[in-house]
Amino acid sequence: MVVWVLWLIAAGVLFVVEMFTFTFYLLWLSLGALVAGLVALLLPDALLLQVVAGSLVALILTVFTKPLAARLRNSRGFKDTGTDIVGRKGLVVEAIEPGRYGQVKVGGDTWSATSTVALGKDQEVIVVRRGTTIIEVERWGDMY
């Protein structure tokens, strides 16, 4: 198999995984792999140049889009949908043990969740804090 096809497959896999993470980091890696694939198409024997070109593109995109994303978050009228989840009621779909993750359904979304107390399946909870992708919950009756 030719090298540019491998780069194209890597770019596609990274892009698909990115769609599940919503972080943009894998998107930039995907674009870097795509650039490396283009270099491989033009210069199939220059493996080091392919890696360097792909890495530089991914690094430049990562560095320069971070300030843009911060500016967007601080702009007037921007609303992060993830912060709305704090204070909402949810339902445990996979039991939570202290120190271990479980699953909680809030609205139509299922989140990985932690708690300081053990929570069984189908127990109602309230979201008290949200990390990047993990929420912290408490038993519904404990707070209200």
Automatic annotation (TrEMBL):
The keyword RNA-binding does not apply. Keywords: Membrane, Transmembrane, Transmembrane helix. The chain crosses the membrane at residues 5-27, 47-69. InterPro entries: Membrane_assoc_protease (IPR052165), NA-bd_OB-fold (IPR012340), NfeD-like_C (IPR002810). Residues 84-139 form the NfeD-like C-terminal domain. Gene3D superfamilies: Nucleic acid-binding proteins (2.40.50.140). It is found in: Membrane. It is a multi-pass membrane protein. GO terms for cellular component: plasma membrane. This is NfeD-like C-terminal domain-containing protein. It comes from Paenibacillus borealis.
